[in-house]
C-alpha cells in the first residue's frame, strides 16, 4: 500500500464536477494527469462528449491530453492496476466506458468526439462557423510567418504621406523620428504584429472617450502603486516620514527647493492613497532617497532642510534612515513612486497620440486588404475575428448563444500564459454562466512558470482570476504541492533559493508572483546533486571547455541517463556547440543553431549585395575582407581612399595604381578583380542563386570551411536565395534577412537523445536526469523603441485597464508616462526572468549544474554579476562560490594581455581551386514525343521545395538512426516542417498541403520495408554526398541523395524522387522515370567508380508512393 501523497485532498477536490476551480500546479506536480482525470470525471455526467472543451496552447499538449484520455479508456477495459494513483484513473475510465455504452457514444471508435484543441484551433472554428459576423468570407489560410504582410501594409500606409488626415498624422510622426521613413516603416510593421492588444481601444472610442479612458487608467495605476507602498510600510513609519517632511519643507520655505517638498508646506493631513496626493508621496520619497535609484541618503545637512542647530530632528531623521536600511521593499517602492506620472496627458502629448492612433488604424485597414489579397491571415487576426463573431458580453451574437448552449464545461491548460485577447475570449464564452447552473470552468496553471511575455502572456491575468474569478464565475483556488519529478535534494534547494528571491507580495500590475514551496515525492539523494561553477570576466571559451568536460564525465558515469544543456538565448551557445563537435560529443539541437549567424552566410550575403549593387561600399568591403580574398584593414583603407566618392570596384580595375596597397594585397586583389568583373557581367542575366553559387565556387569560398555545418549553412543560404529571388533579382533584402533568421542547422545525430541542447523556454514541460545551465552571467539584448508604449493591468474589481504613451521625439528625453510604462514593463520582465530560471532549474530529475560569470573590476574588491543577468537573480544563493578570487589582477581596458581578435582566416595568396576528377558525362538524348515526361501533381516550385525538405528529413532519419523514429515523432515535427517550407517561400493555402506531403513521404519511408532498408545503418553510408567533377562541358556539381555498401559488398546509389502519380499503370510510370533519370544516375556511378573498384548499382525511390525502381535491373 503506497503512502497517501501530501496534496491528495486537493487532487480529489478537483474531481468535483459541480464546482469551478483555478489550480496552481507547480513544476512536476502532474498537471496533465489532473486535467485528464477531470475530463474523464466530466464525461461521466454529460449527455454528449462535445459539451466538454479542453483548451491547450500547443498541438503537442493537445495531442498528449487526448492520448492520455484514450489510453485511460483502453486500460479501463483490463484489470485494475496495483498503484493507488493509477487506480483513480482506472476507476474513472470504467465509469466513462459504462456511460459510453449507455449513451452509445463509442468513443474508442470515434475519438474525434473528444474536443481537446488549441486556442488557435478554437478561434479558427469560431470564425468559420459565422464567416459574416467574423468578416471572413472564404476561410483564409492561417500563417505562422506574416512579417512580409506587415511590411507591405506599412509601406502602403506610408504612401499616404501628404494625403488627407492620415497624411498629416504621418507628417507628425516623421517629424518626431527625424524624417527617418525607413525607421517608421519598421516600427509600423512591428506594431501591426501586436495589434490585438491596442486596436480595441483605438477603434471603438472617439478622441474624447479614449482620452478619458486612458486618464482613468493612469489614475487607477497611480492609486495601485500608492496602495502597494502604503501596505508595505510598518506601523508608524508614514507618520514619522510626514512629520520630518513638514519640518524640512518649513526650513526650505522661500528657497529654491532642491527636492520637491513644496507639497508639504503647511500640510497637516496625512497623504491619502489617491492620485491627487501623488506630489506628497513623491515628496516623502525624495526626503529619504538620493537623486537616482533606490539609494538612501547618507548625509543630512541644511541643504536637505535640517539645520545643524536642530539636533533633535536631525537625529530623528538619521534614525528613520537607519530603520529604512532593513526595509528594502519599502525603499524600492518609494523609488518607483517617484517615477509615477501625473494622471493626465498634456495637449502636446495628446496631439501626438491622436496622430499615432490615426496612422495605426489606417495601417490595420491596409493590413486587412493585404490579408484578402494573399488569402492568408495571422493568428492575431483569427483571434480578433473570433471575438468579433461572439459579440459583446452584454450583447452576444447568435453564435455566442449557440456556443453557450453547447459548451457546458471548459478546461484551460497553462492558464498562466493567457494573453489579454484569449482572456476576453474566455469571458465571452462563459458570459451568462452562473453558480449552480451545472456549467463549470477549470483553469490549471502555475504562475511561477509564466515565461511567455514575448507571446503576449500576462501572469497578472492568472492572479486577477484567482482573486476575482472570470466574469460572474467564482473560481475556487486549489494548490498542488507534491513534485513527482525531482529528487528531494533538488526540491529542497529550489525551495530555499526561490522562496528567498521571489517577490514577497503578489501584484498583478507588475506581474509579481510569490513562491509556493513543493514537497518531494522521491527520497533524499546525495548532497552533490547541485553544483555551481564560478567563472570570471566572461571567459566563454573556458565555460565551453568546462561544459564539454562535464558532459563527457556525466555520460561516462551515468550511461543510461540523459543530459540537457539549457540556455537563456541561442547566442549563448556560440562557443559551446563548436566545442561539443570538436570533442566528438553528439547532441540533438532542434531549431537552435542559427545558420544566419555563421560567417559563411554573412559573406555570401555580402557577395549577393555586391553582385546586385556594385556601388554598395559596405558589401564590397565585406567581400574584400572575406576569406576568399582576405585583405587586411590597411589595404581596405588604401582602396577606400583610392575610390574617393566612386564605387570601390572602380580602383579594382587597376590595383597597380592604388597607392599604399601592399604587395600581397595587390596579388590577392588581381585575382579577385578579374573574377568579379566577369561575374558582374552576368548579374540579372541568369538566376541569382546560380550566379552567387558559381561566383562563390570560383572565389574559393568552400576552401576554408572547417566544419560540415558551415557547408550546410552555405547550401541553405543558396536554397533560400533561390526561393526569394524574382527575375534574377532580389526585390527585398529585408525579406531575405528574415528568411535567413528562420534557418537552423539540422538536429544532427542524437546519440539516443542522451544530450539535448535547447533554450530554457523550449524546455518547459520536459524533464532530464541532468540539467546544465551555462551562461547565467550574460545579459539579454535591450528592447528596441516602439511607436506606442502600452501596458495592461487590472483594477480592484478585476476589470481590464490600459495606459498608453507615444514614442519620444528623436533626441528628446522620455516623457513621464512613457518612462513609467517602460519601467513597468522592465519590472515585469525582471520578474519573468526569475521565473524562467525557476523553470530551467526544475527540469532536472537528479542533478543540476550551473555556470555563471561575475566581473572583477579595478573599482570593486569582490566579483559582481551583471545587473540584468540570471546570475544576479540567483546571487544570494551562489555568491559564496566566488569567495576565492582568481590569482590575477582585475582586467582593465589598457591591460597588455587583454583578449586579442581572432587571426584573419583567408586563402593563401595566389590560391587556385584544385582540379576535380574528370568523368565521362553521357550525351543528352531527347526522348521521343510519345515518351515525354508524364504529368505530376505538385508541379512547380512548391514541388521542388517539398522535395528539398523531404531530402533534408530523410538525411536526419538516416544519420540519427531509423530505430529512433516512428510516425508520431514525424508528426511532432509538423511545425518545424511548416517553418522550413515557409522559409523556402511556400505560403498561403499551399503550406498545409505541402506540409502534409512532406509528412506523408517520411511516414511512408518508415513504414515501407524498402524505405527502411535504404535508411538503415550500412557500411560507408552517406547522405547528400556532394562531388564536383570535370566534364567536357565544364565543372559539374553532383549530390547523391543516399549511398552505402550492402552486406554483399555492393555499392548502392539511390536518388529520392518526390513526385506523385495518379491514374495509369504504375509500372509504366516507373519505367518512364527510370529512363528520364538514367543519365543522371549513370553520371553518379561514373564519378564513384573513379574512387573505388566495386560493383555499383543505381535506383530511384519514391517516398510519396512507397515505390522503388532499380535501373539496369
Description:
It contains 39 helices and 24 strands. The longest helix has 28 residues, at 347-374. The radius of gyration is 33 Å and the shape is globular. The chain starts with 7 loop residues before the first helix and ends with a strand.
| Distance between the amino and carboxyl termini | 66 Å
Shape category:
globular
User: Pairing-aware structural class of the strands and helices?
Assistant: alpha/beta
List the total number of helices.
39
Biggest β-sheet description: 6 strands, parallel
Provide a brief overview of the structure.
This protein has 1113 residues and is α/β, with parallel strands linked by helices.
Q: Could you list some keywords that capture this structure?
A:
five-stranded parallel beta sheet; alpha/beta; 1113 residues
Amino acid at each position: 500500500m503506497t503512502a497517501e501523497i501530501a496534496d491528495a485532498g486537493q487532487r480529489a477536490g478537483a474531481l468535483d464536477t459541480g464546482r469551478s476551480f483555478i489550480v496552481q500546479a507547480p513544476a512536476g506536480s502532474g498537471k496533465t494527469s489532473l486535467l485528464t482525470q477531470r475530463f474523464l470525471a466530466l464525461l461521466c455526467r454529460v449527455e454528449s462528449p462535445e459539451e466538454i472543451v479542453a483548451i491547450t496552447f500547443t498541438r503537442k499538449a493537445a495531442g498528449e491530453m487526448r492520448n492520455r484520455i484514450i489510453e485511460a479508456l483502453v486500460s479501463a477495459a483490463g484489470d485494475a492496476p496495483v498503484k493507488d494513483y493509477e487506480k483513480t484513473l482506472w476507476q474513472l475510465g470504467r465509469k466513462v466506458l459504462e456511460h459510453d455504452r449507455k449513451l452509445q457514444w463509442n468513443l474508442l471508435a470515434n475519438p474525434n468526439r473528444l474536443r481537446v484543441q488549441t486556442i488557435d484551433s478554437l478561434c479558427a472554428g469560431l470564425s468559420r462557423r459565422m464567416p459574416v459576423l467574423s468578416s471572413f468570407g472564404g476561410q483564409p489560410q492561417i500563417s505562422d510567418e506574416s512579417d512580409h504582410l506587415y511590411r507591405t501594409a506599412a509601406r502602403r500606409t506610408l504612401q499616404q504621406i501628404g494625403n488627407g488626415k492620415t497624411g498629416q498624422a504621418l507628417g507628425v510622426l516623421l517629424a518626431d523620428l527625424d524624417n527617418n521613413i525607413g525607421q517608421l516603416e519598421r516600427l509600423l510593421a512591428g506594431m501591426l504584429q501586436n495589434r490585438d492588444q491596442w486596436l480595441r481601444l483605438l477603434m471603438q472610442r472617439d478622441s474624447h472617450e479614449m482620452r478619458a479612458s486612458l486618464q482613468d487608467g493612469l489614475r487607477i495605476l497611480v492609486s495601485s502603486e500608492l496602495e502597494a507602498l502604503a501596505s508595505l510600510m510598518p506601523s508608524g513609519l508614514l507618520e514619522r516620514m510626514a512629520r520630518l517632511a513638514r519640518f524640512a519643507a518649513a526650513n526650505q520655505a522661500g528657497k529654491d527647493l532642491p527636492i520637491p517638498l513644496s507639497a508639504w508646506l503647511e500640510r497637516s493631513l496625512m497623504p491619502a492613497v489617491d492620485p491627487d496626493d501623488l506630489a506628497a508621496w513623491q515628496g516623502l520619497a525624495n526626503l529619504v532617497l538620493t537623486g537616482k535609484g533606490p539609494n538612501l541618503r547618507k548625509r543630512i545637512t541644511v541643504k536637505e532642510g535640517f539645520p545643524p542647530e536642530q539636533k533633535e530632528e536631525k537625529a530623528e531623521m538619521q534614525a528613520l534612515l537607519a530603520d529604512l536600511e532593513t526595509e528594502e521593499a519599502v525603499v524600492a517602492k518609494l523609488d518607483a513612486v517617484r517615477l509615477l506620472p501625473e494622471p493626465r496627458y498634456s495637449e502636446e502629448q495628446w496631439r501626438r497620440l491622436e496622430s499615432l492612433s490615426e496612422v495605426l488604424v489606417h495601417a490595420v485597414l491596409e493590413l486587412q486588404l493585404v490579408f484578402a489579397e494573399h488569402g492568408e491571415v495571422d493568428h492575431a487576426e483569427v483571434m480578433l475575428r473570433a471575438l468579433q463573431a461572439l459579440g459583446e458580453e452584454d450583447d452576444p451574437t447568435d453564435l455566442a448563444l449557440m456556443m453557450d448552449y453547447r459548451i457546458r464545461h471548459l478546461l484551460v491548460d497553462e492558464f498562466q500564459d493567457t494573453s489579454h485577447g484569449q482572456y476576453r475570449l474566455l469571458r465571452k464564452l462563459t458570459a451568462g454562466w452562473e453558480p449552480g447552473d451545472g456549467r463549470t470552468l477549470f483553469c490549471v496553471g502555475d504562475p511561477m512558470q509564466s515565461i511567455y511575455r514575448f507571446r503576449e502572456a500576462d501572469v497578472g491575468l492568472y492572479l486577477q482570476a484567482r482573486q476575482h474569478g472570470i466574469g460572474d464565475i467564482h473560481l475556487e483556488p486549489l494548490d498542488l504541492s507534491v513534485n513527482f519529478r525531482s529528487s528531494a535534494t533538488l526540491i529542497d534547494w529550489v525551495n530555499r533559493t526561490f522562496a528567498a528571491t521571489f517577490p514577497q507580495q503578489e501584484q498583478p500590475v507588475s506581474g509579481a508572483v510569490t513562491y509556493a514551496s513543493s514537497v518531494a515525492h522521491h527520497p533524499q539523494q546525495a548532497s552533490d546533486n547541485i553544483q555551481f561553477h564560478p567563472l570570471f570576466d566572461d571567459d566563454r571559451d573556458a565555460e565551453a571547455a568546462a561544459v564539454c568536460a562535464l558532459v563527457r564525465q556525466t555520460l561516462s558515469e551515468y550511461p543510461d541517463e540523459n543530459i540537457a544543456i539549457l540556455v537563456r538565448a541561442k547566442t549563448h551557445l556560440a562557443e559551446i556547440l563548436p566545442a561539443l563537435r570538436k570533442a566528438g560529443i553528439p547532441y540533438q539541437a532542434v531549431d537552435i543553431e542559427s545558420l544566419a549567424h555563421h560567417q559563411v552566410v554573412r559573406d555570401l550575403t555580402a557577395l549577393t549585395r555586391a553582385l546586385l549593387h556594385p556601388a554598395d561600399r559596405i558589401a564590397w568591403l565585406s567581400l574584400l575582407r572575406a576569406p576568399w580574398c582576405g585583405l587586411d584593414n590597411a589595404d581596405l583603407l588604401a582602396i577606400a581612399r583610392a575610390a574617393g566618392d566612386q564605387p570601390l570596384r572602380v580602383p579594382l580595375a587597376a590595383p597597380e595604381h592604388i597607392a599604399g596597397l601592399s604587395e600581397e594585397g595587390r596579388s590577392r586583389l588581381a585575382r579577385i578583380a578579374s573574377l568579379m568583373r566577369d561575374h558582374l557581367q552576368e548579374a540579372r542575366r541568369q538566376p541569382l542563386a546560380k550566379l552567387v553559387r558559381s561566383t562563390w565556387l570560383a572565389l574559393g569560398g568552400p576552401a576554408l570551411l572547417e566544419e560540415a555545418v558551415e557547408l550546410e549553412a552555405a547550401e541553405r543560404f543558396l536554397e533560400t536565395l533561390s526561393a526569394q529571388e524574382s527575375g534574377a533579382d532580389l526585390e527585398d533584402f529585408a525579406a531575405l534577412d528574415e528568411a535567413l533568421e528562420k534557418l537552423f542547422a539540422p538536429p544532427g545525430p542524437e546519440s539516443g537523445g542522451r544530450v539535448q541542447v535547447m533554450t530554457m523556454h523550449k524546455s518547459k514541460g520536459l524533464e532530464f536526469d541532468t540539467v546544465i545551465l551555462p551562461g547565467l552571467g550574460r545579459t539579454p539584448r535591450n528592447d528596441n523603441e516602439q511607436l506606442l508604449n502600452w501596458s495592461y493591468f487590472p483594477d480592484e474589481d478585476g476589470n481590464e485597464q490600459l495606459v498608453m504613451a507615444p514614442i519620444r521625439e528623436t533626441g528628446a528625453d522620455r516623457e513621464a508616462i512613457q518612462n513609467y510604462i517602460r519601467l513597468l514593463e522592465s519590472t515585469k520582465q525582471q520578474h519573468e526572468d526569475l521565473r524562467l530560471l525557476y523553470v530551467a532549474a526544475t527540469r532536472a530529475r537528479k542533478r543540476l549544474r550551473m555556470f555563471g560569470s561575475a566581473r572583477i573590476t579595478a573599482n570593486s574588491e569582490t566579483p559582481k554579476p551583471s545587473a540584468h543577468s540570471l546570475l544576479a537573480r540567483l546571487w544570494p544563493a551562489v555568491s559564496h562560490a566566488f569567495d576565492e578570487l582568481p590569482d590575477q589582477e582585475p582586467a582593465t581596458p589598457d591591460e597588455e594581455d587583454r583578449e586579442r581578435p581572432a587571426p584573419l582566416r583567408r586563402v593563401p595568396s595566389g590560391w587556385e581551386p584544385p582540379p576535380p576528377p574528370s568523368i565521362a558525362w553521357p550525351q543528352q538524348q531527347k526522348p521521343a514525343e510519345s515518351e515525354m515526361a508524364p504529368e505530376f501533381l505538385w508541379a512547380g516550385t512548391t514541388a521542388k521545395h517539398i522535395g528539398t525538405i523531404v531530402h533534408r528529413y530523410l538525411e536526419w532519419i538516416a544519420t540519427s538512426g531509423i530505430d529512433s523514429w516512428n510516425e508520431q515523432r514525424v508528426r511532432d515535427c509538423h511545425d518545424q516542417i511548416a517553418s522550413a517550407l515557409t522559409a523556402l517561400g511556400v505560403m498561403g493555402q499551399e503550406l498545409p498541403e505541402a506540409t502534409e506531403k512532406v509528412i506523408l513521404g517520411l511516414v511512408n519511408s518508415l513504414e515501407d520495408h524498402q524505405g527502411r532498408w535504404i535508411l538503415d545503418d550500412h557500411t560507408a553510408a552517406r547522405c547528400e554526398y556532394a562531388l564536383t567533377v570535370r566534364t567536357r562541358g565544364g565543372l559539374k556539381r553532383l549530390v547523391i541523395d543516399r549511398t552505402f555498401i550492402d552486406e554483399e559488398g555492393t555499392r548502392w546509389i539511390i536518388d529520392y524522387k518526390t513526385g506523385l502519380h495518379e491514374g495509369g499503370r504504375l509500372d509504366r510510370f516507373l519505367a518512364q522515370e527510370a529512363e528520364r533519370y538514367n543519365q543522371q544516375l549513370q553520371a553518379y556511378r561514373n564519378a564513384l567508380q573513379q574512387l573505388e573498384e566495386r560493383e555499383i548499382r543505381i535506383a530511384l525511390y519514391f517516398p510519396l508512393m512507397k515505390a522503388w525502381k532499380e535501373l539496369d535491373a
